[in-house]
Amino acid sequence: MLRPVLVVETTRRKKRRDLRKKLARQFYEAFTQEGFVTVSGHVISKETWDQQMDFCNATMTMDPKANVPFESRRRGTNRASTWVSRRLEDSVFTKNLKIDFYNMLYQDSKADRKHPPHLVPYLDEIRKVMLHVRDDTQKKLFILLAMCLEMPADELIATHAPGQSSSECCRYMSYAPLTPEATAKARGLFMPAHADWGAFSILFSPPVSALQILHKSGVFKWVEYKPYTLIVNFGQALELLTGGLFLATIHRVVTPPKDQVDYLRVGIYCFSRPDDDFALALFHDSPILKRLGKDKPLDPNVTYSTAEILEAKKHGYLKSDLDFDKPKDNNFHDDPFRQGDRFAATQKVLASITKAFA
Ligand SMILES: [Fe+2]
After folding, report:
1. How many A from CA of 157 to the centre of ligand 1?
2. Which of 3, 31, 91, 160 is most buried, by CB atoms within 10 Å?
3. What SS3 state is found at 350?
4. Model confidence over 327-337: pLDDT tens digits?
5. Mean of the per-residue pLDDT values of the chain
6. 86 alpha carbon, distance to own chain's centre
7. Where does the Isopenicillin N synthase-like Fe(2+) 2OG dioxygenase domain lie (predicted)?
8. How far is Cα 96 from Cα 175, in angstroms, rounded to an integer?
9. In angstroms, what is the span from residue 206 Cα to ligand 1's centroid?
């Protein structure tokens, strides 16, 4: 069980500098040793938190027919490009898995977006929480990362300029219980092991346990549920920018423990992503990367922009099978996560992620 905790909030101005140094150390140790952090002190009240989870629950339990007007087109569309719901239970992506999500973009290109009726009266409140996660919690994470890299915080924060990412979003998501047959077909995996491709992924800690993280010891470990805390994963964009000093969090969603196996697992996820046209090259100005010899690009052959790496990920880039503890029989098991990979040969960056576990 993993439980690194980072308390990001402080009002003690006199001690702020010392506290930030301490937090930066915790940040470094948590992400390099445990692979993620649990954040408290985020200043989202319990009342607001519960209300947001109610919105999420209500959206994820909508009647499938009522959901239809908010679904995206199934194919040929960037699912993250709209404020949209998309049921996935009959898609190629998930086959027998019942996964659903509802994206809420920070920068929606469609001004008159229609939303489920139960959300409409509360859109301002939802937006306020989204912006808090982005402009407060995430900003503090960037400040700590900047301290670790010995770089100006403004330089890191500037990579996430408001309005410059077309995919930055918060997402309601649900995983429905599976039949024993579907569980066996999926190797007990709702979502196979992977790394998110953005900067930070910030998750409202869900009461149904299913999240596991690949620990540096090479073992997948459960993430402890701590009520009213945020779970933060490190994304591949930041791994590229930090030359692999920080490795992206390899995580997966598995069948919940027996006493929760029949529950719908819902959660709120906020994905921070650099500007669409931002080149994910190394932070050359970081003295610490130079001193530690982490000043070489992980993939010398290609530098993707944020928008490009999203497209590459959608087609299989960096999607190797990392669930080594759940052997796959190609004649029996489904693996829709990697179906249609066109970048299977492009594994150089992934190699940098996995070498720590070799
Ligand atoms: Fe993920």
Report:
1. 22
2. 31
3. helix
4. 888 888 877 66
5. 82
6. 18
7. 188-273
8. 11
9. 14
Distance 241 CA to ligand 1 centre (A): 19
Torsion of CA 101, 102, 104, 110, to 10 degrees: 130
CA gyration radius, the chain: 20
* pTM of the entire predicted model: 0.86
Q: For the chain, what are the domain ranges? A: 4-357
Distance 357 CA to ligand 1 centre (A): 19
> Range with the lowest mean pLDDT among 111-120, 149-158, 329-338?
329-338
Dump pLDDT digits (tens) for 20-58: 888 999 999 999 988 899 999 899 999 999 999 999 999
Question: What is the CA(11)–ligand 1 centre distance, in A?
Answer: 32
CA of 236 to the centre of ligand 1 (A): 11
- Residues 216, 357 contacting (CB under 8 angstroms): yes
**Pick among 2.120.10.80, 3.40.1000.10, 2.60.120.330, 3.20.10.10: CATH of 4-357:** 2.60.120.330
* Strands (DSSP E) found in the chain: 5-7, 36-40, 84-87, 99-105, 169-175, 189-195, 200-204, 211-214, 220-222, 230-234, 250-254, 265-271
Give the C-alpha separation, 226 to 86, whole Å. 29
